[in-house]
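Colleagues,

For the teaching module next term, I've prepared a clean inverse folding example: a structure given as tokens, and then the sequence designed for it. I'd like students to try predicting residues themselves before seeing the answer, so please don't circulate the second half yet.
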């Protein structure tokens, strides 16, 4: 949750940096490559308390006192960490910690008073549960969409297989069987038995009239209905 940078201002250092011998004042070897150790020693040199340690202390203070304000928190921090002498940056860090904890739902602020939220863990659990429910719904919709895609793919595969069988059938017909070849386009109308249908057509259109609902079958639908499984 917390980030550390090599920028001096982010560690709580004064804007005007004093000069000092890194080997003597910081107390680590000349060729040390440990950045974590460097940050820790620099922080101690300037009297700054680490952000992680500061956050933990602030949270414990508010949790124990239930309700408190910024001045009381700073006073308690000074008691817990008397070695931290940089009060300006310390106050800034405490304020940053308070803002982070309010954003996380751990504490709340009323006027100038900070209060620990007893059910903060429940709030976080509810948020996690809400996210899980949302992801579960997304998963369900994806699976449902996948099933629909599978049905469409299966239907199209069967249509293609029927068409391939018809092409193979036509290729193997003899010359005297040419009349059995189906010429496209085809138009098949499905309606009730003994239905009176009036059909009129010309070179451009076909007009069909009926008193009942008519189901028009497309070319490939006709092939599937004929069921060329031979």
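(Answer key — instructors only)
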């Amino acid at each position: 949750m917390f980030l550390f940078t090599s920028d001096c201002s982010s560690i709580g250092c004064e804007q005007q940096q004093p000069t000092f011998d890194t080997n003597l004042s910081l107390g680590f070897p000349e060729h040390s490559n440990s950045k974590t150790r460097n940050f820790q020693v620099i922080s101690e040199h300037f009297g700054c308390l680490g952000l992680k340690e500061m956050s933990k202390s602030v949270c414990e203070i508010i949790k124990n006192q239930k309700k408190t304000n910024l001045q009381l928190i700073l006073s308690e921090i000074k008691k817990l960490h008397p070695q931290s002498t940089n009060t300006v940056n310390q106050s800034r860090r405490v304020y940053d910690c308070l803002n982070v904890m309010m954003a996380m739902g751990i504490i709340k602020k009323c006027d100038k008073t900070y209060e620990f939220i007893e059910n903060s863990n429940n709030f976080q659990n509810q948020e996690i549960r809400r996210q899980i429910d949302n992801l579960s719904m997304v998963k369900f919709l994806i699976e449902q969409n996948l099933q629909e895609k599978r049905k469409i793919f299966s239907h199209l595969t069967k249509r293609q297989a029927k068409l391939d069988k018809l092409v193979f059938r036509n290729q193997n017909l003899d010359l005297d069987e040419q009349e059995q070849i189906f010429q496209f386009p085809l138009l098949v109308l499905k309606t009730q038995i003994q239905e009176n249908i009036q059909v009129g057509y010309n070179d451009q259109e076909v007009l069909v009239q009926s008193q009942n609902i008519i189901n028009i079958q497309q070319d490939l639908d006709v092939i599937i209905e004929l069921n060329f499984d031979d």
